[in-house]
Amino acid sequence: MPRGLLIVNPYASRVTDDVVERVACELGDVEVRETERRGHGAELAREASGGFAAIYVLSGDGGFNEVLNGSDGRTPLGFLPGGGASVLARALGLPADPVAAARRLRDARERRISLGRANGRRFGFAAGVGLDAELVRRVDALGRTREGGRAGNAAFARIALALLARRHFRLDPVLEVVGHGRAAFALVANADPYTYAGPLPVHVAPLARFELGLDVVAPRGIRARRIPRYLAYAVRGRGQERARDIVYVHDADRVEVVCDHPLPLQADGEDLGDVEQVVFEAERDAVTVLHGA
Fold first, then answer.
1. Are residues 51 and 101 in the same domain?
2. What is the pLDDT along the chain (293 residues), one digit of tens a residue?
3. What is the distance between the alpha carbons of residues 113 and 97, in angstroms, rounded to a whole number?
4. Within a domain: residue 71?
5. Are 203 and 195 in contact (CB under 8 A)?
6. CATH number of the domain that 240 lies in?
């Protein structure tokens, strides 16, 4: 039996036959299996658990999320950036080029990390209810590019601006972070950075770490005059935890959010539908991941 299993999402924007071949060559003794439908990555990971020394995933964050949800937590996982963002792989310190990342993982070290859960669904780096989940949904509605990728950062920025403008750059509280107060939306981080804007890391929750519990960042309300301050927080990576107009919860095991009406929920950039209540839980010491020396 091959030493490793390479799970490939052939529809990820940066995945080609040539890239798959070069990645497999760098990894060495691996069996290659392609995903064929939504949720197939979780099935392949579940079937492979215990049968391989390592499982590698060449995909974007959606495929990474599926494999995390099928993982037994013991078989080491290596994430190779095959999507446009591939936040999880980058947050683990891997190069943005999948072949270079495979080369780095060839002599990788193991690291135990925590995961988050949103109503039971695992996520690797971030989840959210409200505004950011609505942006994910609206970008998904644009469809895929000719190369097969999701619309990029420019589309996210354009849609975010249009959405805020439609609401006159005002977002009032629409949910309750139970025990902490009301907010306009809630972002939940398992690591820092929360995401990337191209090469720029976005530090929504600067205290979050893969080895800790969950951090929750929830603005109590949005007004036009506050937006530059929030953007400055995200770029600098500090200040959110002390801001009076932001609910900040650090290293939590469990946080409950109750919505005034159904709101969109996302996990690792995957639309999970509308919810009226979300329980975010930390699954500490959940999985073993590979990262370059």
1. yes
2. 568 999 999 999 899 999 999 999 999 999 999 999 999 999 999 999 788 999 999 999 999 999 999 999 999 999 999 998 899 999 999 999 999 999 999 888 899 999 999 999 999 999 999 999 999 999 888 875 544 555 566 677 788 888 888 888 899 999 999 999 999 999 999 999 999 988 889 999 999 999 999 999 999 999 988 888 888 888 888 888 878 899 999 999 999 999 999 999 999 999 999 999 999 999 999 999 998 65
3. 23
4. yes
5. no
6. 2.60.200.40
Pair 83, 126 in one domain: no
Last residue within a domain, chosen from 107, 132, 153: 107
How do the residues of the chain divide into helix, strand and coil, expressed in percent and rounded to 5? 30, 35, 35
The structure's pTM equals 0.91
CATH of the domain at 57: 3.40.50.10330
Interatomic CA distance for residues 159 and 190, integer angstroms: 25
State how many domains the chain has. Answer: 2
